[in-house]
Amino acid sequence: MLPIRNNLGERLDVAFHGAEKSDCLVILGHGVTGNKDRPLLVELADALAENGWPCVRISFSGNGDSEGEFKNSNITKEVADLGAVVDQIGSGKRIAYIGHSMGGAVGALFAARDERVKVLVSLAGMVHTARFARREFSDVTPDQGYMWDEPDCPLSQAYVDDLTQINNTLDAAKEVRLPWLILHGTADDIVLPSDSHDLIKVLRKPSKLVEIQEAKHSFDGHYSTITLKVSEWLTQYL
Description:
Blueprint: E1 4-5, E2 11-12, E3 14-17, E4 24-29, H1 39-50, E5 55-58, H2 75-89, E6 94-100, H3 102-111, E7 117-123, H4 129-137, H5 157-166, H6 170-174, E8 180-185, H7 193-202, E9 207-212, H8 223-237
Parallel strand pairs: 4-5, 4-6, 6-7, 7-8, 8-9
Antiparallel strand pairs: 1-2, 3-5
Helix pairs in contact: 1-8, 2-3, 4-5
């Protein structure tokens, strides 16, 4: 696979999982402070590929081994990154996008403006972006402190401003006309389950919210359930 670069020329780190349904492509995007190698995404992509779905895991710019600086990462930039991936490897394919956490917000905003995505899956997807910024980082000074005290993840003013300006993804979600599956753990204390409850209320059909009992934000211990639900959705709609 040729290098994938975003509109700033930054190379995006990707991993491809080949499978027989060559007319389809499932793109998996991570959340804030994550990358393409988060266990949830690796396990899910492996399982989907075994079931015939070609997958590509991506690290958004500034994350993982992708080029760019983490301090410049935000939802708006990652929406553009996703567009670059679709432009460069999605031609002629039926595309599904699976986004975890902040990656779920990326999917909502992208699908609202780009009809090339045919199926959407949100895994603990962020909806109320401004509320998230206030809840998680109100005690951190932007451009001085760090996200969750992680030195590799500085909290930038650009990131806070982007989440605040977006505010939430509900208006964008109302415009989405494609099958949308939402999975959320009832024990998630990073992106609250209420985000998904608010999202499902505004979605067009076909859409579905599945709550995973006792699952936390990364769905550790529940990968088989996630794989089953996502596989069923792709089989039905992609």
